[in-house]
Amino acid sequence: MKPNRTVTPYLFLVPAMGVFGFAVLFPVIMTFAYSFTEWNGYGAMVFVGIDNYVKAAQDVLFRDSFVHVLIYIAITIVLEVVVGLVLAGLVSVRRRGSLWFRVAIFTPVMLPMVVVAVLWAFVYNNDFGLLNAALQSLGLEDLQRVWLGDTSTALIAVSVVSGWVYAGFYMTIFYAAFNQVPTEVIEAARLDGAGEWQLFRSIKVPMIRNAITVALLLCITGGFQGFDLFYVMTNGGPYGATEIPTTYLVKSVFTFQNVGYGSAMAVVLTVVVVGLGLIFTRVNREKPEEVRS
Amino acid sequence: MSIDSRKKSSGLARTHTAKHHAGWRAPLRIADVLFTAALIVIAVVFFFPMLWMVFSSFKSNSAIFATPFALPTEIDFGRWVEAFEVGHIGQYALNSVIVTGASVLAILLLGAAAAFSFSRYRFRGRNLFMGLLALGLLLPLQSYFIAQSTMFTQLAITDTRWALIIPYTAMGLPLAVYLLKVYLDAVPDELFEAARIDGASDLRIFGSIALPLLRPGLATVAIFSALSSWNEFLLALLYIQDDALKTIPTGLLAFSSRYVTDYGLLFSALSIVTLPMIVIYIVFNKQIVEGITAGSVK
Q1: Phi-psi bin for A111: left (phi > 0), alpha (psi -120 to 50), beta?
Q2: Beta bridge partner(s), residue B122
Q3: A residues 230-249 lying closer than 8 A (beta carbon) to B
Q4: Closest-CA distance of chain B to residue A151, Å
Q5: Measured on CA atoms in the order B183, A95, B224, A81, is the torsion positive or negative?
Q6: Which of B139, B286, B269 is nearest to B219 (CA)?
Q7: pTM of the predicted protein model
Q8: Cβ(A189)–Cβ(A199) under 8 Å?
């Protein structure tokens, strides 16, 4: 491989960079530019400096949307990453014949979120929903709720759906990581009389630390970008109880035509997500030579 | 995260598993039975909403209301056919196939070419371009979709399939290039040099040496690109208003507001789009798991 002075390498690169530059990089720059303007999307664009960022900092709805998404992320860390870890632990104890189990748990990951959202809107349905019907048949009528219409339960209800979907996703990641733990280590621990739980807690989980870090990052940055479930199931309601930054900025831009303000919120969200990603990349680079998933 | 090391170690894991199985002749014990029972309970809890969905698709509204848990009295696929034909689910599925197919093909071809360029050549701007693509791994959709939508409106490509194929391709490229480059980096230089000495052109080396060697990598990239294009919702919602061009996610949403009270038909539509995915997972489960774990670097 020698330094190449011909145009050949560029010819191979141009199509990919062209599409990527056109549909991603250029719009990123333009979104950043919009964030310093007041614009309705078609009329005159007015430069307003950092006004939109000042407005965002003082906007109670925007601040609340971050509180909501942080609650959502906290719940999903438990329901997705922790549950996924436990499920992977269970499956990896007896690998034989576990395919049907993995199919049952993993299938939701394959489905479009909209399908999941419509299905779960039925599960939570007040009149014939599975959840209220189940509570009734268990004699727990007191617990019946209008799950998605109640400000105290809507956010949790949506988060649970996310957990239902992604527990299987993280199970898959962790299962693959567990499979890379050297069998000698596990056999040695078994010979020393370690039970399955001890094995899981003291050997397997510590050995897939890197996979767990990756999973946490994915769960957190993915959480900030969540949109589909919220849009279809509640669209921010009831009374803004499930408004998250993504639904709020989509409304600002596409319903209220505040392109400038929406762009500023998008930039804030981008800085959070990219910032977390960069911090993680640095942390992960400092301890390279370990079992990776 | 290095792909080739993962390749090796997953191969290693497979032989270990095999050994483990060969030596595993434990008698049936109560612990085993309890363990299996626990797995079944968990699987049923997870799978139940989907089971309920399929059962309900065979029921009338009144049966859905009166006995939500009961098995359907008869299995009649009439409603499924109705949802597929009258409810346009077939049309939405076709649109999804076209958009996903075109995006995946473009990602594979453009991604492989770019990876080839980065892996085989040293040239001015190489690090800059690789850095920009690496940034693409981290950038959320929210960082560009606002300006992208105004741009697409001005270029009048909203309400065409291009409005989805172009961004889906662009979104899939960073990870594709990254993964394929790792594969190509592992190919010994001599292979390419030998072809060059034989007088093969760069294009020919790419087409008849690099692409065939990349096949496993391309399969992995195809799987996760296909899944994310198939399931993408926000851009499809913003760019496609024409019902005849809607993909499954937005099409299903339109369907559900059109037949808002015909629950049997809604459950039929949900079942139609769900069942093929279960079959696909069972058939391609190895590739999908590989794609998912590879895609998880994103």
Answers
A1: beta
A2: A3
A3: 231-232, 245-246, 249
A4: 23
A5: negative
A6: B286
A7: 0.88
A8: yes
Nearest to B253 by CA among A115, A264, A251: A115
Sketch the domain layout of chain A as residue ranges: 45-291
Interface test with B, best of A13, A80, A210, A253 (most B CBs within 10 A): A13
ipTM comes to: 0.89
CA torsion B11→B17→B18→B24, rounded to 10°?
170
Q: Return the H-helix or E-strand segment holding A38.
A: strand A37-38
What residues does A38 pair with on adjacent strands? A46
Q: What is the pLDDT of residues B105-150, one digit of tens each?
A: 999 999 999 999 999 999 999 999 999 999 999 999 999 999 999 9
Give the domain A45-291 fold. Answer: MetI-like fold (1.10.3720)
Distance CA(A282)–CA(A145), nearest Å, equals 45
Contact B231 A111 (CB under 8 A): yes
Helices and strands counted in chain A (H then E)? 16, 2
| Total beta-carbon pairs less than 8 A apart between chain A and chain B | 301
Q: Is B24 helix (H, G, I), strand (E, B) or coil?
A: coil
Element (H, E) at A46: strand A46-47
Nearest Cα neighbor of B5 from A285, A208, A292 is A292
